[in-house]
Amino acid sequence: MENAVVSEIIRIAAYIAAAIAASYLMGFLWNRVLKIVAGKTTTSLDDLILENTEKPVRNLALVAGFYFVTRILVKYEQPGRFSFLKVIDGIFFAVAVIVATLFIYGIIKAFLDWYKNEKAPKIHMAIEEFIPLIKRLVQVVVFFISAMIILSHFNVNISGLVATAGVASLAFALAAQDSIANMISGFLIMTDRPFRVGDRIELADGTTGDVMEIGLRSTKIMSFDNTVAVVPNSELAKVKIINYGYPSPKFTVRQTIGVAYGTDMAKVKKALGEICAASPDVLKDPRTEIYFTEFGESSLNVLLMYWIADYRDKFRVMDAVNTEIKKRFEAEGIEIPFPQRDVHLIK
């Protein structure tokens, strides 16, 4: 009998020593081996995983050892009486589950941070605002599952809690459906990328301006008169959007210019072509296009199309080109007519 007791004591001491040694060994392995190896790789994902999981894995090894010790001691308690060791056993189990949950969450958090810092900038995705939200949702889900495992271990009926959580989630979704719709639309905008921060866009209602910020719920657009239009993301996901900055900032300027009937059209085309060719702001490729398009009521209409390097310079370049057109037409006697109509009175 005494030999059996001594054997159990030695076994328990061995478990405790092994748990402490395993905890220190995990710390040594993480810091002295794995982190050095991870530092030589081209990605920071492994570094982040090791950084976020070092403490949980050390604590998990320690808690697991003490949990096995309590499992041994519980066998020697008398049945039918209050078991203090069973309480300790349950506490160690709960702590072990929590530590394991922190280990899993640390891996997920490391992946999200790595994606935010390394992958998202390379594909020009502005999802920085969504990362904290995703982290919070993952945290809630992981710890909810952890709580269900712990309650199930203590023989607590969790079906009622699951049903309550489902009803609460449904009620929250119904109450915040507009906000949820805006958040989902914002995420789709950031992944599909119909426009980016800095792009000039035009909405179906005529709202035009530069995108200042793409947020969780709304997008801010700076108009030309220095006012900010805040548009819910759910509305942007449903309407037609013209993006002047995609796929490149190059922009086509289209102008209709009217000249008087009887004007030599070859002379007009030559003058317009030379003006655009002499302008430093008009691109040579694609080339300028000039077409005689219409016999108007008071004028012969010519369509002038030329390209500029950046849509933001549209009005400045148009001003310079129009000024030169007016000077050239006046110098060569090309008349730009005003609307006129002949009226005949019948007596």
Detailed description of the structure:
By secondary structure, the chain is an alpha+beta fold. It folds into three domains: 2-175; 194-243, SH3 type barrels (Roll); 251-332, 2-Layer Sandwich (Alpha-Beta Plaits). 58% of the residues lie in helices and 14% in strands. The chain is built from nine helices and eight strands. The chain has a five-stranded antiparallel β-sheet with strand order 4-3-2-1-5. It has a three-stranded antiparallel β-sheet with strand order 6-8-7, with helices on one face. α2 runs antiparallel to α3 (84-122). The radius of gyration is 37 Å and the shape is elongated. The model has no long low-confidence stretch (mean pLDDT 80).
Overall average residue pLDDT: 80
Low-confidence stretches: none
Radius of gyration: 37 Å
Strand content: 5-15%
Give the strand order, joined by hyphens, for the main sheet: 4-3-2-1-5
Please, how many helices?
9
Number of domains as seen in the coordinates: 3
The run of helices and strands is HHHHHHEEEEHEEHEEH
- Biggest β-sheet description: 5 strands, antiparallel
Structural category is: alpha+beta
Q: Which word captures the global form?
A: elongated
Number of strands: 8
Name the quaternary structure: single chain
Residue share in helices?
55-70%
Q: For the terminal residues, how far apart are their CA atoms?
A: 141 Å
